[in-house]
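re: that chain from earlier
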Amino acid sequence: MRVFLVILDSCGAGELPDAALFGDVGAHTLKRISTSKYFNCENTRKYGLANIDGQEYLGPIKDQLGACARIAERSMGKDTTIGHWEIAGIVSEKPLPTFPDGFPEWVLKEFSEKCGVGVLCNKAYSGTEVIKDYGEEHMRTGKLIVYTSADSVFQIAAHEELYPPEELYRFCRIAREILKGEVGVGRVIARPFVGDPEHGFTRTTNRHDFSLEPYGETMLDAMKAEGRDVIAVGKITDIFAGRGVTETILTHGNTEGMKVTKEVEERDFDGLCFTNLVDFDMLYGHRQDIDGYAKAFAEFDGWFPKFVADMREDDVVFVTADHGCDPGDESTDHTREYIPLLVAGPRVRPVNLGTRSTYADIAATICELLGVDFECPGESFASEILK
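^ sequence. v structure.
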């Protein structure tokens, strides 16, 4: 049997009851982008998107083609790492550490000494603004631009002419070794860029994430242990620090991610194809680009029907998100939201599963479908969705 799990990175479905604790009252990523003239959900709507709790503004339909649900996050966070880990079966009781005022001096000192290079910035910053403000000094001094955000991240920006991506990745690995325990951020992120002070700097697609290793067993670990394929498309391998993955296919953006996922569909394998479509979050959510986000959703909506039509008899596809990133609120940060869920396939019943209490229900369900023995905090809904 084959299962496809596609993450529309940051496509939240409305504020969670505890959104006020995270400063996210009123956040609703999907509803926000639906206001754009470029938004189109004609196909995903047919599979139940408009019937999900809280999405009535999309126009509910009577005869949906798949299963749908809205799912709450039980973990204490709203970032990529914690969201994906919960989808894979780990609930994080404590949030990963953040450093809104910059990292401790000892961290920067040890990092600089081990890299043999100085550092600049050490503040919470927008990724596009930080290279604008520090790019020229970086070029002049050779010092690395180190910054963070509201998320649990240690980001390193460097010009590709000064430090080719592989060298930047080496610096990130050094940081990853340092950042453990109380300073164990979820991700160390390489942020390469090009350009010059006169014409401006732009980030390249050579970003690479170095994640904290999951602190418990995930569904990926369980599948691999039982000899199943776990094909990671996009940044999935990065998010799980390579654990439980049998094949990695890196991609540059949503379009390539969808193309590769379709190519995997045309292959023989037994297990899971796990895809992350990062552009929703990286290019549009954080950059407050409502129209860009809406166009990206419309592109996915146009891709989806052909993918479903070509599925084999026992195939099942899950489409969901990992958190929100409302592109029209007052912040560029992630937002504490429910995630939408669509499930489709030849054997999937048209059922509305209502609102569920943890992302881990996805892991429990996928493992039951694949016959993989895995205990997690989630509750399987496999029997409710299969004909």
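Residues 107 and 113 are 10 Å apart (CA to CA).
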